[in-house]
Each structure stands twice: as C-alpha cells, then as structure tokens.
Amino acid sequence: MNILFIVLALLTVTGLTALLAKICRIPLPLPLIQIAIGSLTALGGLQVGFDPDIFLLLFIPPLLFADAYRMPMREFGELRNVIIFLALGLVVFTTIGCGYFIHWLIPPIILPAAFALAAVLSPTDAVSVGSMIEGGKAPARVVHILHGEALLNDASGLVCFKFAVVAAMTGIFSFQHALEVFFIMSVGGVLIGCALAWAACRAEHLLLVRGYDDAPTHITLAMILPFAIYLIADSLHCSGILAAVAGGMTVKFTGVMNEATTETRLRAATVWDMVNFTFNAAIFLLLGLQLPQLVRNGFQLAREGGVSPWKLLVAILLIQLIMSVTRFFWIWLSTTARRIIARIRHRNTVIPSLRTMAVMTVAGTRGALTLAAILSLPVATAASTGFPGRDLLVTLAAGVIICSLLLASMTMPPLLAGLAPDDNDPTQRELSAMRIELAQVALHFLHKQQSDLAECDEDENESHDLKQEAISRLLHEYQDMQKRLDDTEAAEDEIRLTAIREKRTELSLRFHIIRTMRELLHKRVVEKRINDETEWTIRQELDFMERELQIEAKALPSTHDA
Fold first, then answer.
1. How far apart are the C-alpha atoms of 351 and 345, rounded to whole Å?
2. How many angstroms separate the CA atoms of 93 and 87, rounded?
3. Contact present, 370 and 323 (Cβ < 8 Å)
4. Angle formed at CA 182 by CA 181 and CA 188, multiple of 5 degrees
5. For residues 370 and 286, is the Cβ–Cβ distance under 8 A?
6. How confident is the model over 507-527, as a mean pLDDT?
7. What is the Cα–Cα distance from 324 to 367, expressed in whole angstroms?
8. Cα(331)–Cα(280) distance, rounded to whole angstroms?
9. Angle 390-417/262-304 helices, nearest 10 degrees?
C-alpha cells in the first residue's frame, strides 16, 4: 500500500507541476520547478527510496529510445564528427583534467575517486538538456549537436566511471584493458540495439502485411522494446544505453511506422508524448525528493570533518566553474580544429560565435543519471568496505547538478535572446517547399483527371457531372493552398496575403462550428435522446476534424511574412 501511495503521489505532483508553472507564470525552467516541488514534498514528509539500478532500467531506456527516434538523421550524419568529438573526447578530457583539479582542491579525495566523480559529472543529461533548449529559440544546429552529444556521452561517461571505481577499490588500472572493454561495450551495445530493433521491425512489418494492425497491441509491444534492448545488452556486458539509442534510430530508419494505420500512428504519438512528459517530470521530482537528505548529509559530513559548510559550497561552485571552463575550452578547440581543416581542404564550414559556444557550454547540464551513478557507489557495511569518501562524493555531485541547472536557467535566456536567427536551418524552407510540391502534385493529378474526363463519352459515364464537380472543388482547394504557400518573387504579395486571411477566417468559422456541434451533442446526451456509444463515436469524429484543422492552422504562414 505504501508503494501504491508513493506512485499515486508522484503522478499527482507530476501532473500539477506544469499546471502550476503556467498558472503562476514562474520564470524558471520546468525542471527546476519540479526539483523545488520535490524538495518541498520531501520536507513535508514524503520519503521515496532511490534505487540506482531500478532507476536506470525504468526511466533511461524509453526516454533515450524516444529521443533517438526523434533525432533528425540527416543532421546527425552531417554533425557526427562534432557530436563524437564532444561525446567521447570531451568526456575523457573532463575526467582527467577535472579529476586532477578535484584531487588538488580536496586532497582527502584520492585521485581514483576524484576521477570517478569527474567521470560521472562529465556526461550531459539528455532530459535536462532538452528541457533547457526546447521552444525553438536556440539555433537548430546547436540543438542537434547538444541532443546528439547527450544521447552518446552517457555510455562513455559511465565506462570511465566504472574503471575509476575499480581503480579506487582495488588500486589496479590498465589503460589497454579499459580501452578494450570500452570498445567492446560501445560497439557491442550499438550492434545489439540495431539487431534487436531491426528484428522487431521485421516482425512488425510481417504482421502489418498480413493485416494484423491492432493499435493497442502494437503500441504496447513498442513500449516494451527499449526495455528489452537495454536488458539484453546489459546482460551481455555491453552498453544498454547505447543499445537503446541505436534501437531508436534503427526503428526510425526502417520506417516501419509509416506502414501502420493512421489510428495506430496517432495513438502511438499520444502515448509516447505522455510517457515522455511523465517520466521527465518524475526524474526531476525524484531528484528533488533526494535533495534535502543529501544536503543534511553534506552539512553533517562537513561538521564531522571540522569544515565549515560554506567551504563545501565553495568547493561545489569551483567544481562547477572548472567543469564549465573545461567544456568551453573543448568546444573552442573543436571549432578551431574544424576551421583549420576547412581551410586546408578549401571548404566552407559553419563557425559558431562566442555567444553560441557559451550557449553550448551552459546547456551542458547534469541530471538524474549523474545522481543515479554516484549513488551506486558501494556503501560500507559490516561485511565489506565502502567506496572511499562516498558521502562526500555524493554531496559534491548533487551540488554540481543543482549548480549546472541554476547556471543554465539564469544565463540561457539572455544568451539565446542575443543570438541571431539560424539562417542555415533549412527546416522552414523545406516545409514550405515540400508543401508547395505536394500541392503541385495534387494539381497535376487533378488536371490529368479533368483531361481524361473531357475525352470520355458523357453518355457512357453517368457520374461525369459529379466527378467534374468534385474535381473543380479540389482544384480550387489546392490552388488556394499554393497561393498561400508560394512566397517566391513571382508570387503577388496581395494575392498571397488575401489567401492567407481567407483561410484563417475559414478555419475560425470551422472551429466555432465544431464547438457548436459539441454543445449540441452534449445537450442531446443530457436529454437522453442519444446514448453514450453514439456520443463517443461522434465525439471521436469531431476530435479528428478539430485536430486536422489545428494542423492546418499551424501550417499557415504569418501575415507579416507576406
């Protein structure tokens, strides 16, 4: 009963956090609000245990799988060198450089333990990164790089952490062995994820071809897939994180979802959005629930060591500072290397400004994965010795997580406000061009149908007039769409502007009509003139109609662009 109460309490608070943030208009990122609410809930008496293994299994696979599925493949391929340079090179550089700094700053922390702390702090958190840069204000190139880095650097950071822990516990470390294991874990994880996802997609394809397209069944199996991939890869001593990422990309690459029915795709999108929102919020709530106890432990640790808690806070700030400086230096080094290589090869390349590099630096936030890894350090028991300085490392890691989130929340808005629009982002241009091309294809097909209809004998075709009338209506619809979307110099601004305004007026009327229909539907149910099944069927039809209108409204260009 206690577990059931905790789950219900977490779900309730998860649902209320976003609503509270919007109602109160709190000028803070949602992750920080959720951490604060989690902390207040913990102070109010709600205590939730934090099992690192269960946490990694429950939250990480589906979130990384979904993020990998949504990662643009073309941009990932174009930016692969930059992403790998950050996801692998920066992690190793941070582990070594910041490890030595932590050991120098706090000598009681032995060097292997300092490496372990630096390693667990080196990966950026995909969840918090996404929460900080979403909303369309950050340049698309920066968003793709940060998302790609966050997807891949977890594995490299956890491998470095694992070997640092072994070295601290046993005093033995072999660079060659570490490199071999890292290669096996990484490549093995990617291969396992690709293989399992491809096999699942083939099975899905065979079922769809034979007509077995049951939406609830397919969505349920799709939800289990990332957990299965993670568990199988982990049981084979490979990276379950990379396996989940590779699995998500493989599912997208196969395009199996395009073969499913519209209903399955719509339901799947809704379910994954719900999972993404709920799990993201739960992660930060759990982080906030652990925070008061971690702070108390940190103060107690400082008092037992005869150290002022303020010195502990200064140490946390200095670690955050060196992590940010290290990250900025590595990004600058990456940019300089790309500039030199581009000059040697006589090629053009996009060179980020200092402000863009600053955005990429502060967006490298740490999250719950860091906390889960540091809490997995062995605890001292009567039968075994714990990890040296475990409590201090946990306190420092928790402090740096909060500092990184606060730094991002305070500096990201002014940094993004000063960034110029991303002129190199082709997304909007491609959207408009593709919509125009689709409209042209439809017009070409309708003109051909009209020509074929003119050649046929009217007496032999009784539906001639009906088809002619339908073609005329569709021609008007797609010609109107082409007028709205065509922003080339050949297009007349006044005609385009009028078409946009007409469509906007039409959509407004359609929305009001649907609202009136809903009111009448509810009235008939109250009067018991129709039953619940009739209401459900019609309400679902109205929902689909309204969703289609919302998509059309979103695709409309703004009138000031005309």
1. 15
2. 11
3. no
4. 85
5. no
6. 88
7. 15
8. 27
9. 120
**Residues 467/468/472/473 CA torsion (nearest 10 deg):** -30
Per-residue pLDDT of 193-239, as tens digits, reads 999 999 999 988 888 888 777 788 888 888 999 999 999 999 998 88
Distance CA 380, CA 14 (A): 34
Type of residue found at 387: F
Q: Helix or strand or coil: residue 52?
A: helix
Three-state secondary structure call for residue 123: coil
Question: Is there a contact between 189 and 248 (Cβ–Cβ < 8 Å)?
Answer: no
Q: Could you give the CA distance from residue 195 to residue 174 in angstroms, rounded to a whole number? A: 31
State the DSSP code for 28.
S
Give the separation between CA 454 and CA 448, rounded to whole angstroms. 10
How far apart are alpha carbons 477 and 108 in whole angstroms? 74
CB atoms within 10 A of CB 470: 13
Query: Would you call 291 exposed, middle or buried from its count of C-beta atoms within 10 A (0-12, 13-18, 19+)?
Result: buried
Instruction: Name the pTM for this structure.
Output: 0.80
* CB 425, CB 140: distance < 8 Å: yes
What amino acid occupies position 319?
I
Instruction: Provide the phi-psi class of 135: left if phi over 0, else alpha when psi is between -120 and 50, else beta.
Output: left
CA distance 174 to 325: 29
At how many degrees (to 10) do helices 262-304 and 2-24 cross?
100
Tokens representing residue 341 in the block: 């290589």
| Residue 558, phi then psi, degrees to nearest 5 | -75, 150
What distance in Å separates the CA atoms of residue 116 and residue 163, rounded to the nearest whole number? Answer: 8
How many beta carbons lie within 10 A of that of residue 199, not counting itself?
Answer: 11
Residue 422 to residue 274: CA distance in whole angstroms: 30
Q: What are phi and psi of 395, to 5 degrees?
A: -65, -45
Tokens 């689709």 -> residue? 438
* 340: its two tokens: 């030199």
DSSP letters for 91-110? HHHHHHHHHHHHHHHSTTS-
Q: Which of 190, 206, 186 is nearest to 68 (CA)?
A: 190
What's the CA gap between 244 and 218, in Å, rounded?
Answer: 18
CB contact set of 108 (below 8 Å; sequence gap of 6+): 389, 392
**Rounded (10°) CA dihedral 264, 270, 275, 281:** 170
For 311-344, write each residue's pLDDT tens digit: 888 999 999 999 999 999 999 988 888 888 878 8
What residues contact 25, with CB distance under 8 A and at least 6 apart?
Answer: none
Contact present, 404 and 366 (Cβ < 8 Å)? yes
For the chain, the farthest-separated pair of C-alpha atoms sits apart, in whole angstroms, at 103
CA 36 to chain centre: 22
**By the 8 A CB rule, do 227 and 241 touch?**
no
Q: Please check whether residue 48 is in contact with residue 6, taking contact to mean a CB–CB distance below 8 angstroms.
A: yes
Residue 349: DSSP 8-state: -
pLDDT at 128 over 70: no
- Tell me the three state secondary structure of residue 357: helix
Q: Tell me the C-alpha distance between 325 and 314, whole Å.
A: 16
DSSP assignment of 184-221 equals HHHHHHHHHHHHHHHHHHHHHHHHHHTT---HHHHHHH
